[in-house]
Amino acid sequence: MLIEFRPVTDPELAALVTAQQRELREIDGGLDGQVTVVHDDARHLVGMVDGQAVACGAIQTLGGDTAEIKRMYVRPAHRGRGLSRQLLTALEELALRSGHTVLRLETGSYLPTAIALYASSGYAEIPVYGEYVDNPYSVCFEKHLPVPVPV
After folding, report:
1. What are 83-140's pLDDT values in tens digits?
2. Is 60 in a helix, a strand, or coil?
3. Taking burial as the number of CB atoms within 10 A of a residue's CB, which of 63, 71, 80, 135 is the most buried?
4. What are the residue boundaries of the N-acetyltransferase domain, all occurrences included (predicted)?
5. Closest CA to 106 of 134, 76, 146
């Protein structure tokens, strides 16, 4: 998978976010009528396979050395190929290059595959935070990224 930076105005990114939101609304107990905001100040990555945009994710600064992973999504036809893990690794590398050593994220309790991905990638469950506090479906995670030691 080729991973590229994309601006928030990119039509392929917008199509992926729209597909993600539609899919979440279709899941029982999903968004519960909530509208998700795409943050203009987030840095977005899009995963390309054979010239087609099939995955997306972003990081947004929360403050200090902490950033949040947003909009992680892989189109259903491309799941099960390790693309989510590749994208997550790219987001972690972007966070480190941007000066962040702590990553947080939120996912839904109704997304066991996502929870398993984050847990197997070294993310530990934390109390819900920020805009997610009042969402009964939110599950939040945090990871302290290993800082490379200069040689």
Report:
1. 999 999 999 999 999 999 999 999 999 999 999 999 999 999 999 999 999 999 999 9
2. strand
3. 71
4. 3-146
5. 134
Tell me which H or E stretch contains 36.
none
Query: Which uninterrupted H or E stretch holds 85?
Result: helix 83-97
Judged by DSSP in three states, 74 sits in: strand
pTM to 2 decimals? 0.90
**Residue tagged 């840095």 (tokens):** 43
Helical axes 112-120 vs 83-97, angle rounded to 10°: 50
Would you state the structure tokens that stand for residue 53, as one six-digit string? 């945009």
Distance CA 92, CA 58 (A): 10
Give the residue from 8, 18, 88, 107 showing the smallest Cα distance to 47.
88
Provide the residue type at 134 as one letter.
D
- Domain residue spans of the chain: 2-144
